[in-house]
Design goal:
By secondary structure, the protein is mainly α. 67% of the residues lie in helices and 0% in strands. It contains five helices and no strands.
Amino acid sequence: MSQPSSRHLVIGDLAVLGGLIAGYLALYELGVSQQVWDPLFGDGSVKVLTSPISRALPVPDAVLGFLAYALEAVLAFAIGFGFARPSGAVGALLALVVLGLSGAGVVLIGVQVFVVHALCTLCLASALVSFASLCVSLPDLRDWAARIRGRRRTGDTSLSGVQGVS
């Protein structure tokens, strides 16, 4: 077991916060809760969460967000508590999840502004959590980008050059 990483513990904590927000929104989308709290935009959350875009997937989008945040938390805590290395497969998967959630946050904001024409406080908070996680993850993302560039220069397309993968 390697040294705990406080940066990855912060990423895990942010993922838990994002998961709580997404879980709360999922309860509304699943019909478990009959109302959703929105202190800034009134019925904006209802408009966003019941929009055709929100209903386009077979599973409510907040449920997918909850699952993605849960995966991010597990991966970040595995690295943060020293059970996995950021340079190994767990680190690679964490980088992909962080990038995916950040991309989803950009799409979420764009859909609210340009398609639904309504804003959802907790949806925006969830996107902000994803962006904060991205910022904290930047050192890992830079390391992964450097590794990928290095393998491309040498012509190595396998994962065997990545620590922790054989």
